[in-house]
TrEMBL record:
One of its GO terms (cellular component) is plasma membrane. Keywords: Amino-acid transport, Auxin signaling pathway, Cell membrane, Membrane, Symport, Transmembrane, Transmembrane helix, Transport. The chain crosses the membrane at residues 43-64, 70-89, 124-145, 165-187, 256-275, 295-320, 340-365. Belongs to the amino acid/polyamine transporter 2 family. Amino acid/auxin permease (AAAP) (TC 2.A.18.1) subfamily. Residues 35-152, 160-319 form the Amino acid transporter transmembrane domain. One of its GO terms (molecular function) is symporter activity. It comes from Vicia faba (Broad bean). It is a multi-pass membrane protein. This is Amino acid transporter transmembrane domain-containing protein. It is found in: Cell membrane; Endomembrane system.
Length: 378
C-alpha cells in the first residue's frame, strides 16, 4: 500500500491500494485450488456410495451377459455426456468466456427460458432425494453395527466448497474401504461355495413371476444408471477447479479417472457378489453375509459407509441449498449427424429412466405388502 501527499498541506491524503491479481480469477473471486485429483475425489464421493453395494442384485436380475454389458454402456454414456456438459461451465471461449457457476446458470446461458426452471426443479428434486437416500443408508449401516454387536455380545452452500477436498478424499477412501471389504467377502464366499453361481439370463422365472422378472429388470437398469449419476453436480464440482489450463480440460481428466476407478470397482463388486449369491443376491451386498464371523469386519465396512455418506451428504446437500443438452444447443446444428445421435441418446436414457421408475414403483408396492413403514425390523 502506498500513500501520496499533495504539495498543499490542506489537500487531503490519498491512498492507493494495490492487490496482487494473481490471487484472484478473471471474475474477481479468490482463485480456486482444485485439480483433476480433487475433482476425481468429489466425483467418487458422490458416486461410489450411491449404488456399488446394490450392483450384485442388479446383475442377478439381468444375468452374466446383460448385467456387466449395461455397466460398461452406462460408464461410456456418463463419460461422454459429462465431457459435453463440462463445456457449459464457460460461455464461448473455454479459457476466458463468462463462467457459469452452477448447473442452472449453465442451462440459462445455453438454453434459457422455461428450460431453466424445468432443469432446476429436476436438479433440486434429484439432490433432495439423494440426500434422503444417503441419510437412510447411513442409518441402516449404523443399525447393522448395533445388531451385529448385539448378536455377538448378547446447509446453505459452503462458500469454501473448493476447500472441502480433504472431506471428499476421506469419503472416497472410505468408499474404497467398504467396497474392498465387500469384494473380499464375495471372493471368500465364491471360494467357500467352490463354484460360481448365477446364470446368463439372470433370475429365473419360477423363482419370481414373469411380471416380477420384468419389473425387477427395469429396476436393475435404474440401479446401474443411478450408480453412475453425478452429472447434476458436475458444473458445481468444476467450479472448484483452478485455471489455466481450462476448467473443462481438467474436468474431463477428472471424469476419466473417476470413471475408470468406479467402473473397475463396480465390475468387481457386482460380479463377485453375484458369483457368491446367485439369484439370492441381496439389495445390499454386506447384508448378505449376515451377522456371523468376521462380524468385526462387517462393522468396519458399515462404519466406513457412515463416514463416506457424511462426506457425500455434504457434497450433495451443500449444493442443494444454492442457487448433455447444453452442449448440444449451440455447438451442433439441428439435424446434423451429431445432433441426431445426441437426441437418440437422450431419448434412450429417458426411456430407461421411465422404465426404472415404473419398476421402482412396482417394487415399492410389493414391499409394502411385507414391510411396515416407520417400523424397525430385526
Amino acid at each position: 500500500m502506498t500513500m501520496q501527499k499533495g504539495n498543499n498541506n490542506n489537500h487531503q491524503k490519498s491512498f492507493e491500494v494495490s492487490i496482487d491479481s494473481k490471487f484472484f480469477d478473471d471474475d474477481g473471486r479468490l482463485n480456486d485450488s482444485g485439480n483433476k485429483w480433487t475433482g476425481s475425489a468429489h466425483i467418487i464421493t458422490a458416486v461410489i456410495g450411491s449404488g456399488v453395494l446394490s450392483l450384485a442384485w442388479a446383475i442377478a436380475q439381468l444375468g452374466w451377459i446383460a448385467g456387466p454389458s449395461m455397466m460398461l454402456l452406462f460408464a461410456f454414456i456418463i463419460y461422454h455426456t459429462s465431457t459435453l456438459l463440462s463445456v457449459g461451465y464457460r460461455t464461448g471461449d473455454q479459457l476466458n468466456g463468462k463462467r457459469n457457476y452452477t448447473y442452472t446458470q449453465a442451462v440459462g446461458a445455453y438454453l434459457g427460458g422455461y428450460k431453466v426452471k424445468i432443469c432446476g426443479i429436476i436438479q433440486y428434486v434429484n439432490l433432495f432425494g439423494v440426500a434422503i437416500g444417503y441419510t437412510i443408508a447411513a442409518s441402516i449401516s449404523m443399525m447393522a453395527i448395533k445388531r451385529s454387536n448385539c448378536f455377538h455380545n448378547s446447509g446453505g452452500k459452503d462458500p469454501y466448497f473448493d476447500q472441502l477436498w480433504w472431506l471428499s478424499s476421506l469419503a472416497a477412501a472410505m468408499s474404497f474401504t467398504y467396497s474392498t471389504i465387500g469384494l473380499g467377502l464375495g471372493v471368500g464366499k465364491v471360494i467357500e461355495n467352490k463354484g460360481i453361481k448365477g446364470s446368463l439370463t439372470g433370475i429365473t422365472v419360477g423363482t419370481v413371476t414373469q411380471t416380477q422378472k420384468v419389473w425387477r429388470s427395469f429396476q436393475a437398469l435404474g440401479n446401474i444408471a443411478f450408480a453412475y449419476s453425478y452429472s447434476l453436480i458436475l458444473i458445481e464440482i468444476q467450479d472448484t477447479i483452478k485455471s489455466p489450463p481450462s476448467e473443462s480440460k481438467t474436468m474431463n481428466q477428472a471424469t476419466l479417472i473417476s470413471n475408470i476407478v468406479t467402473t473397475f470397482f463396480y465390475m468387481l463388486c457386482g460380479c463377485f457378489g453375484y458369483a457368491a449369491f446367485g439369484d439370492s443376491s441381496p439389495g445390499n451386498l454386506l447384508t448378505g453375509f449376515g451377522f456371523y464371523n468376521p462380524f468385526w469386519l462387517l462393522d468396519i465396512a458399515n462404519a466406513a459407509i457412515v463416514i463416506h455418506l457424511v462426506g457425500a451428504f455434504q457434497v450433495t446437500a451443500s449444493l442443494f441449498t444454492q442457487h448433455g443438452n447444453i452442449h448440444c444447443s449451440k455447438e451442433n446444428t439441428k439435424w446434423s449427424t451429431k445432433w441426431i445421435c445426441l437426441q437418440i441418446l437422450s431419448a434412450s436414457c429417458l426411456v430407461i429412466s421411465l422404465a426404472a421408475g415404473i419398476g421402482s414403483v412396482a417394487g415399492i408396492v410389493t414391499d409394502l405388502g411385507v414391510y411396515k413403514p416407520f417400523h424397525a425390523m430385526y
